[in-house]
């Protein structure tokens, strides 16, 4: 028993020494420096920052939305983030060298080599798509077509495609929208649906598409299915090297028929269909989506009285991207001065340091980890245990009056 206890103490001592000798990877070191600078901690404050152990970092994927609105020559940026549905202990490449070189332990963790992607979504013409970083993209109409390396795809009116594997979708040129903005009724974002119909009508009357999107890293572009079993066949026309036009014989068919198809096996997001109503040109979006309703309410609050008056506003930037986030904890320790212990119980041991626990949510950008939000964690309130002699004023138990509780008839 004694030898086992000695072995356990030696193991704990070895583990603590090993943890203290492990240097921070550059990504974690830069993250730590950014947080210390953001909290305004200087060397004169005598605050010790510990933690940031990459082995304790949790990794999750989410979808980030960025919008820039111009209202009365004033640019208002928006940044929205979906909740991370799952956190895992993932061996990221920016952490891998540090954990394996010093511990010598190979832990079975989830693979972090693949970049996060958006859920499949449906786009309907008329519009143009600029393709980036997709040299091995598959084109299916509905059968696979060899069209070379595509840089630009023009969707004619009535053509709809399903995009899979995209890492981000963004607006290439600003768009103007008219006001007033209709109010949300019956659980649908009527204002945004009206703006979408206005944009759709303007696109049909123009000689060239006014809507241009930039899509990064799609793995496939396929003809969108018109029902649960078949896909609508699209015609391909080569306009130039790397430039094709896709058209459909069903020009007069409403795009709503494409939104009836639910993409199975994917996590529902802002881009995936949930009901039969659609929001052109992203026919995967429906007017009752909770995120869409929330964005319309936010837009109403920003516009204020202008939302009900005749006018216009401009959408300068719109970007939807899949991102990797890291959640990691750390703590700050500070020496306690005598003035901070006023009213402290005399019987309690006075602490020498004050420890505050934090958790940081950071976004992975290449080889960097950029902090997004720092949250202070609620401390665990300790339970005080006081000796009976302190509560009774150090009175002998023999002098305490006996208390006899009433008998219990059900007790044997």
Notes on the structure:
The chain is of the alpha+beta class and 412 residues long. It has a domain at 63-91 and 114-323. The protein is 19% helix and 31% strand. It has six helices and 18 strands. It has helices at 2-21, 26-38, 93-103, 190-205, 290-303, 388-391; strands spanning 47-51, 58-71, 74-81, 121-124, 127-132, 138-140, 144-145, 152-155, 160-164, 168-171, 175-179, 212-216, 220-223, 235-240, 243-247, 311-335, 353-365, 368-376. Strands 1, 2, 3, 5, 8, 10, 11, 12, 14, 15, 16, 17 and 18 form a 13-stranded mixed sheet that branches. A hairpin with a 2-residue loop joins β2 (58-71) and β3 (74-81). The chain is elongated. The two termini are 42 Å apart. Residues 1-21, 98-112 and 252-276 have low confidence and may be disordered.
Sketch the major β-sheet. Answer: 13 strands, mixed
Overall spatial form: elongated
Distance between the termini: 42 Å
Succession of helices and strands: HHEEEHEEEEEEEEHEEEEHEEEH
Strand content: 25-35%
Helix content: 10-25%
Number of E-type strands: 18
Number of helices: 6
Structural class: alpha+beta
Radius of gyration: 30 Å
- Taking pLDDT < 50 over at least 5 consecutive residues as the criterion, the unreliable ranges are 1-21, 98-112, 252-276
Q: Average pLDDT value?
A: 78
Signal peptide: 1-19
Keywords: Signal
GO cellular component, one term: endoplasmic reticulum
Protein name: Tunicamycin induced 1
Please summarize what this structure is.
The chain is of the alpha+beta class and 412 residues long.
